[in-house]
Design a protein that fits this description.
Helices cover 33% and strands 22% of the residues. The protein is α/β, with parallel strands linked by helices. It folds into two domains: 11-101; 109-239, Beta Barrel (OB fold (Dihydrolipoamide Acetyltransferase, E2P)), CATH 2.40.50. The protein has a five-stranded mixed β-barrel. The chain is elongated, with a radius of gyration of 26 Å. It starts with 10 loop residues before the first helix and ends in an 11-residue tail after the last strand.
């Protein structure tokens, strides 16, 4: 005669389930923290922020489901299952550990490593049409689109500009010349690219690389590394704090 005993999860399986629940709740808390702290835009384009809200909710639901599974369920063979469970735990733990240990900060000058776009780039007609702001309200991306709409760099001679970015230089730049740089992000930092606006400041030495500055001046066509492009002749340069949202979004 067999006695039906209440089913309880075996100890090894129970430990794995508890670990899975803890990791899922940990991921939910991590996503919630990045949202609340405002650091989310260090990783992704702001218009995709809703995906992080969804992820936080789904991870929390997954953690709750894992805890409910501890109450019981059908027995399964442990052969091969432990390997699958441990692999799953590793997949959950890796992003949580990396996200927790690596400080959240936006891409900066160290991420450029010589790869920076200068002057006019290829934009669609729709993107060029977006440049409807007045010159003093344009950012570096707006100016790049404006340059793409006009084949003659001298067409911008005398136009006033005020832009925000960080200082970037290379050894082969002309004296007193630097880039006012920003990163553009289409989806996430994996597709980020650096965009720079050449600037010339005859009145003083160039600030340290990575310093965030607001630069005001006017454009004059000039040669920059063998390329004819509008160069911003600096009238005023002011060190500033990095903006809360440092990326530009195409």
């Amino acid at each position: 005669m067999h006695t039906n005993l209440p089913y309880s999860t075996p100890a090894p399986s129970r430990a794995v389930t508890i670990a899975k629940a803890a990791l899922l709740f940990g991921l939910a808390a991590y996503f919630a923290y990045t949202i609340v702290s405002g650091s989310l835009t260090n990783y992704i384009n702001a218009r995709f922020a809703w995906l992080s809200y969804v992820a936080a909710i789904l991870f929390a639901i997954g953690g709750a489901a894992a805890l409910l599974a501890l109450r019981g369920g059908p027995r399964t063979s442990a052969f091969g299952h432990s390997r699958t469970s441990l692999s799953m735990l590793l997949m959950l733990a890796t992003p949580l550990v990396l996200g927790t240990l690596i400080p959240s900060r936006p891409l900066g000058v160290d991420a450029i490593n010589g790869s920076i776009r200068v002057g006019a780039a290829s934009y669609s007609a729709a993107e060029i049409a977006l440049v409807s702001k007045s010159p003093l309200d344009r950012d570096i991306l707006d100016w790049s689109r404006a340059f793409a709409s006009e084949p003659s760099p001298s067409a911008f001679n005398g136009q006033q500009a005020k832009v925000l970015g960080f200082v970037y230089t290379e050894p082969d730049y002309p004296p007193n010349t630097f880039m006012v740089a920003r990163f553009t992000v289409s989806c996430c930092v994996a597709d980020a690219s650096a965009l720079g606006l050449p600037a010339y400041d005859a009145s003083a030495g160039v600030l340290e690389d990575g310093t965030w500055v607001e630069v005001a001046g006017e454009f004059q066509a000039g040669d920059f590394l063998g390329q004819q492009t509008p160069v911003l002749h600096v009238a005023q340069i002011t060190p500033v704090e990095a903006p809360a949202h440092p990326y530009l979004y195409p």
